[in-house]
């Protein structure tokens, strides 16, 4: 059905989209496409949070400050927007009470016969531990298994990244195995644990429904 829609309209099912809202202890979490005007908030958070973000992100040329300068955003945004339009990514901004606090990115979308993608995320350290990212990933996963029509979502995490693994654990992602020297992160090829979820494992009511049932979020 989703495939038929994408062929009929020539557009990527489920994109663009606004998703939400879910209330967690820090405020109201929503997802929307990244915007050109996100640059100053994006840069300010990322430069402030270098110590929190750099150990988990792919290596790249230039210093952290250079790579996350406000002037870098228009180019990055254009690449993300183009990927969204081509149907290979869903580049969402995470907002908390309307302010940008992070990104949740569905990437490497492969349609039939795999119907698979990866999910990646980061969040402003000032609101870490409040359930913001768990709410964001729950919403994006339900969206992927619903309107986007995917069958499998994967997340790869360095075994040292306890907070990220906890997000996936709370959402019911299943550990599949260790990818050795998988990704060049923070200056070296690092092992990553692969976690995944297929649509068969999604509870009735979705991941959001289960979070709400468990008292970890409220519909807003
Ligand atoms: C990983 C990250 C996105 C989590 O965001 P968040 O909004 O704080 O996530 P949540 O609050 O929804 O959940 C975090 C969970 O990890 C737990 N946690 C945090 N640090 C932890 C640690 N060192 N050891 C074990 N658990 C930890 C929190 O207590 C919370 O679990 P709880 O709800 O059971 O208490 C955020 O820390 C981040 O941006 N990190 C840097 C970038 C990154 O690692 N991205 C993912 C790459 S795979």
TrEMBL record:
Transport recorded as keyword: no
Entry keywords, A to Z: Acyltransferase, Transferase
Family the entry assigns: Belongs to the acetyltransferase family. RimJ subfamily.
Organism: Pseudonocardia acidicola
Name assigned to this protein: GNAT family N-acetyltransferase
Gene3D superfamilies xrefs: 3.40.630.30
Domain N-acetyltransferase span(s) in chain numbering: 29-200
InterPro entries, per the entry: Acyl_CoA_acyltransferase (IPR016181), GNAT_dom (IPR000182), N-acetyltransferase (IPR051531)
Entry annotated with the keyword Nucleotide-binding: no
SUPFAM superfamilies for this protein: Acyl-CoA N-acyltransferases (Nat)
